[in-house]
Specification:
Length: 357
């Protein structure tokens, strides 16, 4: 039976990242991709990390697996998992104990994740043999079972086929099967539905929900599309310019958002557009991460920015026990600033639904 969001948040924290700073050396310059981000991941939850391309979603989660590019490094902060600080890991030998076995990842392009010269069954079986100490027929039997679990029909026959014989949606199922075969505690899904059409997207997301329940997974979804995770995420973390600017339950972030960037993201959803009116788009561009950012990184693009936003970086302000945001608008001294009309309507709709009889 699935846990409620209240039960999840009161439960075990399986991974805790605190004040993480990640830098990359590029052409003699330093780019600060992650600027002091903090995140707690609760056992059994589905957490979606959303934000524009380049906001740092993939970089942050790759640091949980030691997958940063060779020119990248964790400069500050801690990433605690199972009593170990992953931020201090230096050798590949250390990461082998974590990568796949404890934390696995599903990448957005299945064709580049699969070996075109090996059968899909063999690729699933390799994960089992490497991480679960099974060999031969025992490993093959489990591989076929997992292929069946991810919705691949006639798995015994499909076991012997190659990636080019599968459709895009089926290849994504195989990639998920390889990740699940490692028997991880945490599964990171990096834009798992980007290359798929809308119908297949829904199937893959439902598949991940089913696998989470069967295998007891904790899932992190990475996406730039809030609409994709509306029905699968327990909590949503909103990233902008290398920092998590708002985090709360899915209901709180969708219907009671507090950060102006979250307002802008939600207003950009095509599903919320009004017929005959142009779709909303966020003005300006994200900040240059080669330069030091002063104040709130979103301030130059925020029509509702306060003077303090350009001077001092805001701390987290607690909205509820499960919801917080980094915006000076939540400071008790701040003037009252109304969110965009679309956000006000969503808030009213949520209020009507949650009215006690």
């Amino acid at each position: 039976m699935a846990l409620t969001i209240e039960e999840i948040i009161k439960g075990e924290i399986i991974l805790s990242a605190e004040d993480v700073v990640i830098k990359f050396s590029l052409r003699g310059q330093e780019l600060t991709a992650i600027r002091g981000a903090s995140l707690d991941l609760h056992k059994g939850e589905s957490l979606a990390i959303v934000g524009e391309s380049g906001s740092g979603k993939s970089v942050l989660t790759k640091s949980f697996m030691g997958l940063l590019d060779s020119n990248g490094r964790i400069e500050e902060g801690t990433i605690m998992y199972n009593g170990q600080d992953l931020a201090r890991f230096k050798s590949e030998e250390q990461w082998i104990q974590i990568r796949g076995r404890e934390i696995a990842m599903v990448f957005q392009d299945p064709m580049t994740s699969l070996n075109p010269l090996k059968t899909i069954g063999r690729q699933v079986q390799e994960s089992i043999e490497l991480h679960r100490n099974m060999k031969g027929e025992e490993a093959k039997k489990l591989a076929v079972e997992i292929l069946n679990d991810v919705g691949i029909s006639d798995p015994e026959k499909r076991y012997s086929q190659f990636p080019h014989e599968f459709s895009g949606g089926m290849r994504q199922r195989v990639v998920i099967a390889i990740a699940v075969a490692c028997n991880p505690n945490i599964l990171i899904c990096d834009e798992p539905t980007t290359a798929l059409d809308v119908t297949i997207q829904a199937q893959i997301l439902q598949l991940l929900k089913n696998l989470q329940e069967k295998y007891g997974l904790t899932i992190i979804y990475i996406t730039h599309d809030l609409g994709v995770v509306a029905n699968v995420a327990d909590r949503i973390a909103v990233m902008y310019a290398g920092d998590i600017v708002e985090i709360g339950t899915a209901e709180e972030v969708f219907f009671d958002p507090r950060h102006p960037y979250t307002w802008a993201l939600l207003s950009s959803l095509p599903q919320l557009g009004i017929k005959g009116e142009p779709l909303y788009s966020i003005k300006g561009t994200p900040p240059n991460l080669f330069k030091e950012i002063t104040g709130d990184a979103f301030a130059p693009r925020n029509p509702r920015a306060l003077k303090v936003d350009f001077v001092i970086r805001p701390p987290y302000f607690q909205v509820s026990p499960t919801h917080k945001a980094k915006t000076w608008l939540l400071d008790p001294r701040a003037p009252k600033v109304e969110p965009p009309l679309m956000i006000q309507k969503m808030r009213e709709k949520w209020g009507e639904v949650n009215v006690q009889p």
